[in-house]
Design goal:
Layout: H1 8-11, E1 20-23, H2 33-42, E2 47-50, H3 61-66, E3 70-75, H4 82-89, E4 94-97, H5 100-112, E5 116-119, E6 133-136, E7 139-145, E8 149-160, E9 165-166, H6 175-180, E10 182-193, E11 212-215
Parallel strand pairs: 1-2, 1-8, 2-3, 3-4, 8-10, 10-11
Antiparallel strand pairs: 5-7, 6-7, 8-9
Length: 233
């Protein structure tokens, strides 16, 4: 039951070219920094990445984009990455923009074994083109397929050797549903604690979903867009 591996390099060792990856995080909060760095070093290419955002130009998924390792992004918010914009406009990167709530539900449904679901979000827009639209109780809904990934990579605050995870604040937004949607889920954590040290009532993700876990290092905790208040106001 001990799922602990040495480091990020060992954790991502079998992620191949062309893999479908789901990556946790919200903005730059709770992103799997160590695993992304290991993927950059490994040099895997033609990746399809499912992530709420695409990082920034020099951090997060932006590092994979710099090295042209990603062929497609399935995301909801990409507004802080100029490189992302240029790659899309030049045709070097394919993008599937998905409403944020729909993306979260696609991942949750995938993890729950639900192949598709109907949602009112996107009806009458480009999002609904080519998809089944049905009426329920007088309202139109569009059919959305759920998402499953070959590998899911998440970052948590604490975890134990069985893979039970606790996320901290904003990092809890997408990481749990990403973790459930992976065929193989890898977790990097700020601290690994002994089994039994985590209060069962405080565990956000049970270890049954996690295949590998390691303690990360050198977390930068970047701010996506820093704003400061004028002290004279």
């Amino acid at each position: 039951m001990n799922k602990v591996v040495t480091d990020a390099k060992e954790a991502v060792r079998d992620i191949p070219d062309g893999a479908l990856l789901a990556l946790g995080g919200f903005g730059l909060c709770g992103i799997p920094e160590n695993c992304i760095a290991a993927l950059v070093e490994k040099g895997v290419k033609n990746l399809t990445c499912i992530s709420n955002n695409a990082g920034v130009d020099d951090f997060g998924i932006g590092l994979l984009l710099q090295r042209r390792q990603v062929k497609k992004m399935i995301s909801s918010y990409v507004g802080e990455n100029k490189l992302f914009e240029s790659l899309v406009l030049s045709g070097e990167l394919e993008v599937e923009l998905t409403p944020q709530g729909t993306l979260a539900e696609k991942l949750r449904a995938g993890g729950a074994g639900i192949p598709a679901f109907y949602t009112p979000t996107g009806v009458g827009t480009l999002v609904a083109q080519g998809k089944d639209v049905r009426e329920f109780d007088g309202r139109l809904y569009v059919l959305e397929r759920s998402l499953r990934a070959d590998f899911a990579i998440v970052k948590a605050w604490k975890g134990d050797s069985m893979g039970n995870l606790v996320f901290r604040k904003t990092a809890r937004n997408f990481n749990p549903v990403v973790a459930t949607a992976g065929k193989i889920t890898i977790a990097e954590v700020e601290e690994i604690v002994p089994v039994g040290a985590l209060d069962p009532d405080q565990i956000h993700l049970p270890g049954i979903y996690v295949k590998r876990i390691f303690q990360g290092k050198n977390y930068k905790k970047r701010i996506e867009k820093r704003t400061v208040r004028n002290a004279s106001l």
